[in-house]
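Note to self: keep these together.
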Amino acid sequence: MKRRSFCGSALATVAAASLPYSRLFAAADGPVAGDVPAIGGTGKQVVLPRSDLNDLRASLRGQLLLAGDEGYDTARRVWNGSFDRKPALIVRCAGAADVVQAVNFGRAHELLVAVRGGGHSISGQSVCDGGLMIDVAPMNSVRVDPIARRARVAGGAKLGDFDREAQAFELATTAGTVSHTGVAGLTLGGGFGRIGRKFGLSCDNVRAFDVVTADGRFVRASNEENADLFWGLRGGGGNFGVVTSFEYELYPVGPVLLGGVLIYPVTQAKEVLEFYDGFAADAPDEVYVDTTLITTPDGKKELILDSTYCGSIEAGERVLKPLREFRKPLVDAIAPTSYVKQQSSLDDAFAYGRHYYVKAGYVRRLPPDVIEAMLECFMSSTLPITPVLTAHHGGAIARVPENATAFTNRDARHSVLIAAAWEDSSGDEAHLKWARSSWKVLEPFTRGFYVNDNNADIPERRVHENYGGNYDRLAVLKAKYDPTNLFRLNANVKPRA
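Structure:
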């Protein structure tokens, strides 16, 4: 007998758990003064009649924000400060019913539509100039069922919201490495994290989605309902609709585990990374270690290995011992720590509002030529914040068949990333030049890319290559659920009959 751990209407559940009605209606609830110019999905100019906008505003529990309204400038800002875009209208959704209204309005008026979850938007595609921004960030509830070990997480929640609620019951599922990342974007793109080698990707641990499709339908996607959509949402990005709620399986984790950093001078980076490559290849599933080549605030160039062991402290001490003893680090800060603290340890390094440019791709191993290319890129920069990173994959991630979900490249053991970050637009030219030239050095060693870790300038051919044998199935699915490509601001899969 199949057991569902959440009863009743999913739509009612999300709506009831959303932000208070009075808070969402604090401003911008009066009549619209006039018609509003906007941009259509194909780039054409359109005019939104005042009467239609007033009807939309009246239909919402949340807010309709237009330029000049209180809260508009705050709502249009995203984590990546490189993007200063101005939508014609923003719908701040209080619940799934608001999402339905917004999608229907965008489709009826053939608008350019951006969807914002709770978090980062590295690519900036969760906000658009002149179009409609559907903002589900106010929908940030998390409900944990500790008996069934399931969590219902609304589409605007951040990883920190999820982790803290689940850890109250000493439970967790794979959820990234920076706590102010949005749950929705992370999961729809795949979802790596510190416990992913043990439990699989975030998308591997979703048991059901509530989603509003391009035709305005509110549907549930699971193995039992709309199974084709369930397949596509697990790694296919934002191509198929607006997810208003995720149901995750949870696992016993923490509340204390072994984690922390090892720091080496850059002069030891090559030999440490070569040793790490062998260590990572043979490591048990409980081990996660990522690496960062970074310049410190005082100008020193260093290598950081950030480790997490998802198991007992005693076992973690044994397993991580060879890594800690290979060379004497400048700092060994590996120690028992709370899972929540570990999950937020990189938050300041990826602060909100900086300008970011990120490129990433997958590699099977870190052989000497890849390590030398990483060091070449890193040492060529004289800019203050230009890390070169790797993220650790494999384990349970690699044991899921390639066609079981839309997510591909499961045989990769690492991602390699170029990440430039700077404080304001005065650094745009220098940082972009370094990042783009460095990626030209590293890209030939990579295959495919993680859709969550790349800026928007991705050629269509690379999207096709990235999804490989799953692309044709995704294109047919796109034609079924979004035939007009309403949801195009993403690593876009074009609809194909």
